[in-house]
Amino acid sequence: MANHNSNHANHSHHIIPFKIYVMTAAALFVLTFATVGFHQMHLGAMAAPVAFLIASIKAALVMLFFMGLKYDNMMNRVIFGISFFTLMLLFAISALDIWTRIAEKSTL
Q: What is the pTM of this model?
């Protein structure tokens, strides 16, 4: 019969203090209110990039603290980093598409 702890001998689980969770949740609430506030300002062509930037910061906070990526091994960080970069690339392409459509409408 195998020892159940043998598989986990080299991996220690980091316990994140409750205060970090509360501070992260507070930051997410503030960023959500910031999104609503910037939407009310009618930023025109800059509305989408600002919204994407705030969404990216919120996603990074969730990945780092709620998913525990900040304290995880390097391979998981690289995988999530590549995925996050791909997401940012898609956001940038979408923002450029929106921006060029707004510019095209204004010239008509």
A: 0.63
